[in-house]
Amino acid sequence: MSGELLRAEGIGKRFGGFVALEGITVSFAAGQLTSIIGPNGAGKSTFFNILSGALTPTSGKLHFRGRELNGLPQHRFVHQGISRSYQITNIFPDLSVHENVRVAAQALTVSYDIWRNRARLAELHARADAALEAVGLLSKRNELAKFLSHGQQRALEIAIALVSEPELLLLDEPTAGMGPEETKDMVALLERLADRRTVLLVEHKMKMVLGLSKRVVVLHHGRLLADGAPDEIRSNPEVRRVYLGQ
Length: 246
Ligand code: ADP
Ligand code: MG
What we know:
single chain, about 250 residues, alpha/beta, Rossmann fold, 2 domains, 6-stranded mixed beta sheet, 4-stranded antiparallel beta sheet, about 25% strand, binds adenosine-5'-diphosphate, binds magnesium ion, ATP-binding, nucleotide-binding, Amino acid/amide ABC transporter ATP-binding protein 1 (HAAT family), ATP hydrolysis activity
């Protein structure tokens, strides 16, 4: 599918008297890897939380495939085809790798008949394994999640986000806390993931983002500072001032 997948129109968010986001209007095309960058506190995670339904905007509208998303609870965002990972590692350490993903798969099913229906249970297992395969963790499926390396745990979180087979995958700083080797592996994984679905990435590693993305959206103090191809962003004087000059 091509064309516009997600559109945010005049999105604003206040926390009490503090304006975290103001007037963000931006749309994302299907089948593209777009990054949202900006210095710490720019509003990236807040914007992501709004795009994934975890936070309700104070103003503005969200459309996904032309359908308005405002006011829907987060699980409805998932059913519409939007799924996300978090900036902070968010897994069950004492469950196995496979169980972590299967719990997520089970949470998506509304019916309890999986316990009596072997075919449904087998399907859940297969779905969990497919998500693990997609992130390169199938060989680790029976290990406890707490024994994975940091990089593998981040990949596991992505598998958890993939189990709903999202059309749009939102990833908040998937390379947070990683060294150069793990970052390289994660970049390769992101490229593979973006072959098959639309990916929106929040990052503050500017260099990595410019090499990886087709398009970069820059937030600064809760506002949209720039939006364009990596080359345009690299040479944008305002971006250089607030970001590269740090
Ligand atoms: P980023 O992800 O770009 O680093 P955030 O979206 O996390 O930035 O935060 C943007 C601004 O909003 C920051 O100044 C932060 O302190 C503030 N903020 C974020 N979440 C909350 C909250 N729940 N309550 C109050 N202020 C918040
Ligand atoms: Mg953040």
